[in-house]
Amino acid sequence: MLQLFSKSEAALIFRVSGRTGPYQRPSKRFPSEEVPKDFTPSVLAYADAMRQVYKQFGENDLDIITLTADALMNTAPWGLYDSRTGKPNLSTPVLEVKEILERGLRHPDAKHHPGILHMYIHLVEMSDQPEIAVIAADHLRTLIPDAGHLHHMPSHIDVIIGDYRRALQTNLKATIADDKYYQREGGKNFYTFYRMHNYHSLVYGAMMAGQASVALEAASRIEATLTERCAIG
Q1: 206 pLDDT exceeds 70?
Q2: What is the DSSP string of 6-59?
Q3: Which of 109, 116, 134, 222 is deepest in the core (most CB within 10 A)?
Q4: Helix, strand, or coil here: 81?
Q5: Which of 113, 140, 167 is where one domain is finished?
Q6: Cα 45 to Cα 41: distance, rounded to the nearest angstrom
Q7: Share of the chain above pLDDT 90, in %
């Protein structure tokens, strides 16, 4: 029989679907077709499932490392660190995620993997040591030329360490990439939220770098691509 996917891919399929094997009936990740009021049970279940996949297959699989880190971080969104001190919140899996990602970053292909670089920036940006992600940010900057959000992501570190000129340049490239997407897909889609985030980051970086003309030009570009109809959706 032709094997259509690897053992690690099968593990991902079964875990995400709620199965533990090919002959078990899948349980829904969400309790119903209605949007639940509380996503916590499904978020925690998915995180636990990805832990198991990582333990079995993940130490050298950058995709699984990325998905596991993402799943674990989503159990404590914006809560991995104390907001005043930047120290790790030990009631969250922050140290577990740090170990997973930093082990993964030692993989020779990690600098070419947008997922792990993206996750590491999100992991440390609210910590008291955001500068440790500068190298990851630099690898990510131009890795996927047409992905505006990935152009933008390094600026999460740039603005925190005060490199506002770099934040300006990074977000300018992000918005140029986003313009290509807008020309093809228009503005009535979920990505408009991310396009505006990239524009806002460009405005902020330009203002902090003392580049008023760049900030004003970005504001004009926002108005040109965010009509009232787009905003209403």
Answers
A1: yes
A2: -HHHHHHHHHHHT-SSTTSPPPPSSSSSSPPS--HHHHHHHHHHHHHHHHHHGG
A3: 116
A4: strand
A5: 140
A6: 6
A7: 74
